[in-house]
TrEMBL record:
Its EC number is 3.1.4.58. This is RNA 2',3'-cyclic phosphodiesterase. InterPro entries: Cyclic_Pdiesterase, RNA_CPDase. It comes from Planococcus maitriensis. Signal peptide: none annotated. A motif (HXTX 1) lies at residues 41-44. Belongs to the 2H phosphoesterase superfamily. ThpR family. The gene is thpR. The keyword Hydrolase applies. HAMAP family: RNA_CPDase. Hydrolyzes RNA 2',3'-cyclic phosphodiester to an RNA 2'-phosphomonoester. It comes from the Bacteria. SUPFAM superfamilies: LigT-like. NCBIfam families: 2_5_ligase. The active site is at residues 41, 125.
Amino acid sequence: MSTHYFIGIRIPGQAAEKIGQTRDSWELSTHKRLTPPADMHITLIFIGEDRFGELGKIAERLGQIDQAPFLLRLAGVKTFGNPETPRIVYAALADSPELMRLQRAVQRQLDPLELSTDPKPFVPHVTLASRWKGGSLPEKLELEELEFPVDSFSLFEIHPRETPRYKEIETYSLKGGA
């Protein structure tokens, strides 16, 4: 099995712990995998495997992104897939022009490369539970309003059989910006 990569924003420790505690209070038995707080993140771009050996170029190009830090706010709980049997339960994020600008900047840096990124539209979210196994979702899945800073983003390597599953191989500070 080849190694896969993505570019994302790690949720800060204290915020991730709080999100995880709230999610655990729901006692979700409907999903096979509950995301550990140490793995909570927002995927900006899923790369998959590095078939063309471009990881070094990716890392170099991401270092050219110039954007100021910003704040993100949670905006409720939503699902992907059939609402009755959702494959993913996630924390939605409030609209953020800064997050959208960062995602577009990352995409622009990757466009000249040969890799095949995920073509699905960007839906900012934090996965809380995945892999439906059956049963009924609790009626109310609520997260308290929570705001957290984004001062960096990272190039991650995926290790499916380890915890944490996602390891930063390069982190880029947000400190500039137009």
